[in-house]
Amino acid sequence: MGDQELERWLYARRSRQPLAKTFPMLDGFVAAVVAGPSMDDPTAWIGPLLAVERSAFDTGGTPEFAAIKAVADRFNAIGVDLQGAALKPRHRGKANGDIDASDWCEGFVAAVNLHRAAWSDALNPDNQLNGLMLPIMLHCKDGLGRPLLGPPRPGQETQIFLKQAYADIPMCVAAIREHYHVIWYDDPRHASRRR
Q1: What average pLDDT does the chain have?
Q2: Which domains does the chain have, with CATH numbers?
Q3: Which tens digit of pLDDT belongs to each residue from 33-58?
Q4: How far is the C-alpha of 39 from the C-alpha of 119, rounded, in Å?
Q5: CB atoms inside a 10 Å sphere around CB 182
Q6: How high is the pLDDT of residue 194?
Q7: R_g of the chain computed on alpha carbons
Q8: Dist CA 49 CA 87 (whole Å)
Q9: How confident is the model at residue 129 (pLDDT cuts 50, 70, 90)?
Q10: Backbone phi, psi, residue 92, to 5°
Q11: What is the Cα–Cα distance from 28 to 30, expressed in whole angstroms?
Q12: Element (H or E) spanning 107, and its range?
């Protein structure tokens, strides 16, 4: 299943409330899974991501199984990209040519929220890792449609910053991965937190 077909499939499943409603949301969600704390059971995150039942993983030849395979393929591709520190988020373009990172970022945050306790370092405002989440959270809204980080400051300088903040996302996700996969997992002091 290609990206466009997967996007159409997700759109058709909106009534089932998958965590990804668009391909960019799926891409951001998978990037968070690859970069962040390990989720050992893929069914625990792919199921909610696609709104598929556990049985869909065992039955080949179905559209659900094709979508699961497409997610696994994207997971592997993002893993390769992050090993080379060359993440290429699949953002949408706006009609005026600007980048719209909101869907991708909403997907990333949805994955974080699914496994929130394990992401506590990145979500703690007193932890320097939280700064790496800011370019992502900047593009997100809360449940009422308000900016997740509060209203932006007025002025042209803020508008320019908001327009260009998406460019920091690949670097930030690579640094998040560095924390969780090199520092966090390789340090025996964190063994109890991984269980």
Answers
A1: 84
A2: 3-194 (1.20.120)
A3: 999 987 778 889 999 999 999 888 88
A4: 11
A5: 10
A6: 45
A7: 17
A8: 20
A9: confident
A10: -85, 160
A11: 5
A12: helix 102-114
